[in-house]
Amino acid sequence: MRYTNKLNPFQHMVKKPKRLETRLIIWVTGLCVLQAVLFGALVYQITAESLHNHMGDKALALATSIASRDDVQSALQTKQGLDELNTQIEHIRELTAASFIVIGDKNTRRIVHPDSDKLGKPMVGGDSKAALRGERYVSIAKGSLGESIRGKVPVLSEQGEVIGLVSVGFLVQSIEPLIRARSAEIMLWGLLLVGLSILAAVYIGQRVRNAIFGLQPDEIARLFSEQDAILNTVRSGIIALDPEGNVRNLNQRACEILGKPTSCIHQPLKLADLLPEHSEFLMHNQQRPIVGFELFAADKRIVLSRYALQVQGQADGILLSMRPADELEYLSQQLTKVQAFAELLRVQTHDYSNKLNLIGALIQMGQTDQAIELIGQESKGSQAQIHHLLERIQDPVLAGLLVGKYHKARELNVILELNPDSLLGSITRKDMLERVVSILGNLIDNAIEAAIRASDTRTPKVRVTVDETSKTLLFDVEDSGFGLGDDKDVIFTPQYSSKSGAEHGIGLYLVKTNLDSCRGSLEIGESDLMGARLSVYIPK
Fold it and tell me: Which residue numbers delimit the Histidine kinase domain (predicted)?
């Protein structure tokens, strides 16, 4: 069996969708043509009506003037001098371009008419009765010469009696050339308007095409649908903001994380409506990226990142992405442990590499006794430090944190010591332990940096004290820096930092956020190390 490829007979009738600019040109041009036609018809109607009224008023005025002539009144009463009167009236008709001037007696028989064959015959049209009753008016009727616009005026005797009437008319067909002349002018202006409309439509189409990056309506619809599907498919909460903090877009996941109904997606919102406690911080310094920032909002811990939006090289707002901390908890814990372990190995490797070089040099110099003594001192000091930490601090996570900070400080030539009076048991609450690690770690890092800044005038030193009561955890971090001075009121604000660099400015803000989440408090004082002392109280 052989198959042939036949074309659909209607295929040639199916056309591809026109481009947007083509549609705009067709729509605008069609609209202008429609407006031109309607406007032309309206103007034609108004012009025709105006000319008719003008001719009617002219006919009525001329009829009134003729009806007041003495020779007309005399001719109607005596029937004499009719030839001379016809001559004079015909002269007036030619001067005024009237189609006809007819004078009839009270029996509507013509005594004056431009056609002499119709003299003495009755007037036709059926519109003379009102004039014989003494009325003045304009009428349109069909007479012996054709349809005309007539001005009808009665002729009165000296006693005020109606003795006849005057009818002045302009044939309708004589007005048509005037109307057509006006119409041609109107059509010319209409065509000019359509031409200008086409040019305007082309210009508008180009501007619209450039504004939407050359995309066609079906492409825009597809991109919008894809964007909506992507936003509501990803597991991260997404919030797009303009530079003033107004919400441009957010997905369903963001509403779930922040505990908001999904109906708010289509409502006008500001960032302060979604994150009231952190909106000021997030809107400050919008060009600076923030990655993996942890905060407490909507009764949960949230990991948030902020990026600046750039449109055509200009700042156009910010983009926030967020996920609940518990979803990232396992991975975060593993990564934290790996990073801490790597940092500890790096510090120890660097430190012991220097010591091995020293030991090797002593052996080469034949100073074996000193080399053996150095090895014993190092082993004894390291073991003593680890033993002291494990003995005073029973929680292995906090002990590991302090060991890591100890080696970090040692690498930076800062003395970090644990107060001998320190004593702390295990922290059973997992969320509490994470917040304590964040608080204590940030305070120790700030203290180390403060001690380094004052190292030119005194020995850099940091002292850590950990303790607890039956209801409260107590932490003291002291340093040998220059102290806080006048910065005490602003150190916990989001934008504060005494250091330069994009990585600074949020450490103490994180301390405050974690303290607020666990209802803790912090006191600032002076240390006997000549620097600052920060005391933390956290209820169990």
Answer: 326-540
